[in-house]
Amino acid sequence: MPKRTSYDAIVIGGGHNGLVNGAYLAKEGLDTLILEKRHLVGGAAITEELYPGFQFTTFSYALSLLRPDIIQDLDLVSHGFMILPMPHSFAPMENGDYLLTGPDRYLNHREIARHSARDAERLEEYEHLQDMVVQAVKPLMDSIPPNLYSKEPEELARMVALGRHLGSLDHAVLHELVRFLTGSAADILDDYFETDILKGLLASSGIIGSNLGPRSQGSGLVLLYHRMGEYDGLFGTWGFHKGGTGGFTQVLAKAAEAFGAEIVTDAPVAEVVTSNGKATGVMLDDGIELDASIVVSALDPRRTFFELVDRRELPTDLVDSVERMKFTGTAAKVNFALDGLPRYPAMGDREDHFRGFINIAPSMDYIEHAFDEGKYGWYSANPYIDATLQSVVDPDMAPPGKHVMSCFVQYAPYHLRESDWDTERDRFGDIVQATLERFFPGFGDLVLHREIVTPLDIERTVGLTQGDIFAGAFLAPQMYFFRPAPGWNQYRTPIDGYYQCGSGTHPGGGVIGGPGKLAASQIINDRRAAE
Amino acid sequence: MLTTPFHERTSAANETGLWSHWAGHLVVTKYQINEKVEYFALRNAAGVLDTSALFKYRIYGRDAERLLSGVLARDIRKCRPGKAQYTMWCDDRGFLIEDGVVLRTSSDEFLLTSAEPNLAYLESMIGGDQAAVEDITDHYGILAVQGPASRTILSALVPEVEDLSFFALTPAKIGDASVIISRTGYTGDLGYEIWADAADATDVWDAVTAAGTGRGLLPYGSQVMHMARIEAGLLLIDVDYQTSRFAWIDEQRATPIELGYGWMFKRLDRDDRAFVGRGAIERELADGSSRFRLVGLDIDWRSYQRAHLDVGLPPTKDHVPVEWAMMVYDDAKRVIGHASSFLYSPLLQRHIAIARLSPSLAAPGTRVRIEVTINNLNYLVDAATRRLPFFNPARKTA
Ligand SMILES: Cc1cc2nc3c(=O)[nH]c(=O)nc-3n(C[C@H](O)[C@H](O)[C@H](O)COP(=O)(O)OP(=O)(O)OC[C@H]3O[C@@H](n4cnc5c(N)ncnc54)[C@H](O)[C@@H]3O)c2cc1C
Q1: ipTM of this complex
Q2: What CATH number is associated with residue B324?
Q3: Structural domain that includes position B180
Q4: How many Å lie between the alpha carbon of A117 and the closest alpha carbon of chain B?
Q5: Is the CB of residue A7 less than 8 Å from the CB of residue A16?
Q6: Ligand 1 centre from B184 Cα, in Å?
Q7: For chain A, what is the largest distance between any 2 Cα atoms, rounded to a whole number of angstroms?
Q8: For the whole model, what pTM was predicted?
Q9: Residue A332: phi, psi to the nearest 5?
């Protein structure tokens, strides 16, 4: 139960973006209340002990995209923020061989050269150019995008500044940027590389969470997005938060509370209360009304515009855009509690290859074939799997000698051609387990417990429409100027005082915090302007 | 080069082939190609460090306490048997010779570690005391077991560790080996140091690493040791100060008070010892004649970031410690001191420095500027002074 009935600001949804948003608002001095439907905050970034002694990252599992400024602004370190490095990437092959990259440039060169000497050299060139592109796009990612439709001088000035920024870029960087934004992952990777295993590994970032194969136009954008993150200043590198992504959202909650925000769980919001086109508060499912002149939805755009408010109060073009917005749940998870470490025969007793991502995608074709099934409404017989064993790096995740294995799996389309996810859940889990058994003989004997998370479960539990992990697909017409809808890309809504800050807003999904932070700055700007 | 009693084990675990020299011994620079792996093992679970290269002295005899009372600036009489003390010794002008940790194993026996040879110096101080000093450097291996999981791991081997308080020590058995375990370290975290007979060292290493299996324990090398000690605000000889013995000019010398250890002399009025440097220290306290103060600097991340972005570079966040002078300025761009240790701390997620500033500018929260090199040019980046240490978890002393 909230302590009071009236606040300056109420944030609906205690996912990481809601927490970030609420923390910034509280830091600004606003009396802020964050309302979370579930018994715990975090949304798609939670850690749960689903099996005694084993901490599962039920949904998201690794961090990189988190905007670094947030760590500083919200003083997260003092509340326990800690990122543990993932120095390796392990890509098993069908023939028992593998590609294992790690922290040493020259060893990586040798390792890749085992497969192709040419690729080994080109990888660094490719990554360097990609980093230049990332550096060029970063300012756009970390600022409120201009409103294309506005004729306000301020917005025109923003457009001019944007044009200037793009005009100032190195020509090769600008062209590469356009290729990423419009092309397919395969277009780009085929230019650089010849080895299947390397291309399979790199292309995987182009399809994460997306209803795309490596050869689909648009997978370039997803590929670039996944390099936009950084860890200690190195682009495209990932880490585990101590205690999983749920450890991270617990830190955020503490930070928000330290700034004075109040967080109430088990408090589903039924609707935003409005009067004369202005938000005046919220009503909880149990009928309790709370007042606030600022109400922020941290939910996805469908819920923000169709569930929390009456769509009849909204302009038709916005309703149409949100109606048309693509939500494409294609990802599922299978999380395992394991009795010991899996064994990859060619690696013997080593375990360094488990200190990072384990990428089951031996080639781009493998992923493309997996996508074929997804495209036609069925889950892949040979799925793409991104697996991690956080307990290898962070021993508190499982009892000594035991492990948790998180497997992010594609393709698992939300809409199944025939049947439904409640019926298919276990069969799907079996396929994933069988795939792992193929690469890690004896895997099945290690399984103590398994937790299957289908797109339907994601939607039911977290509230991400159709289980779309990004709260709106990463398609060019749904990004930047157009996220979540053209003209409504600046966190405001047509209802005065009602704002949006979920992953469906710029810059987008992932455990990134950007939407929460930028929305807060918009709210604060508007408030100052009104004073 | 000499090797330490743990060498067989440290060399087997060293994946990089990189070694450093520490007091004539080979010690591992870093075990893993990515030293952040061992760093976070230390900060998130536990790490073991071979510190056997330190000089070690046994000071014993009826008057051992008297001897040390006269040599050490901090009052050793306050250190009861079964306790340890971080201590300093000065020359007669109050300038620091060295700092180290002394363990009091009984009423008339002490074990002292130091970075430099001190046998002749200590012996020269005996005078008429019934005391003797023995160099036991090679008799023992010392294994530091540090980090939040260190207590859980060690108490599985040695139950006494469970209740060992901060800076306490206990004799113990690890397997067949008789050891001394002290709750001390150089990381600013919960941690212990095990003194084992050189002949037992590898057995002790094996027992500790076995107890740490599945609990995230990894060995860490000297690079991570340096990272951790900067976060912990702990001094390093030849970096944050020079020993008075070999200084050329007084500017190179430092007093305990200047280095931030004035608290050692809070009770000097009730302390009747005659110890080396006492007069000078009293004068410094009375006259406020300290020339500088050692403080922490939090580097302003925005300012650091802007300086890089202005020239088109992503801001570097390099965790390799910079242990040489970086100039510190005031707003008017006057030099007001220098940083002796600088680091991007992956744990704290910011750049930090240990710096010497004029006492008038050392108050916590003072805005200063530090010179960093970006694109081969010098930039002044904003920083704020603060108290040391940077990292000080409650579990360290709890
Ligand atoms: C399976 C999976 C794996 C992923 N893996 C990664 C990864 O490894 N790395 C990464 O960076 N990203 C990953 N992502 C993406 C990332 O987790 C999400 O994009 C991000 O967490 C979304 O955060 P959010 O705060 O915008 O929304 P959400 O996390 O969806 O938060 C919304 C919150 O609102 C609450 N809520 C809903 N309705 C109401 C209501 N009516 N009243 C009150 N509260 C309500 C929900 O319970 C939820 O807590 C993954 C996502 C999924 C689903």
Answers
A1: 0.94
A2: 2.40.30.110
A3: 7-49+138-220
A4: 22
A5: no
A6: 43
A7: 69
A8: 0.96
A9: -135, 170
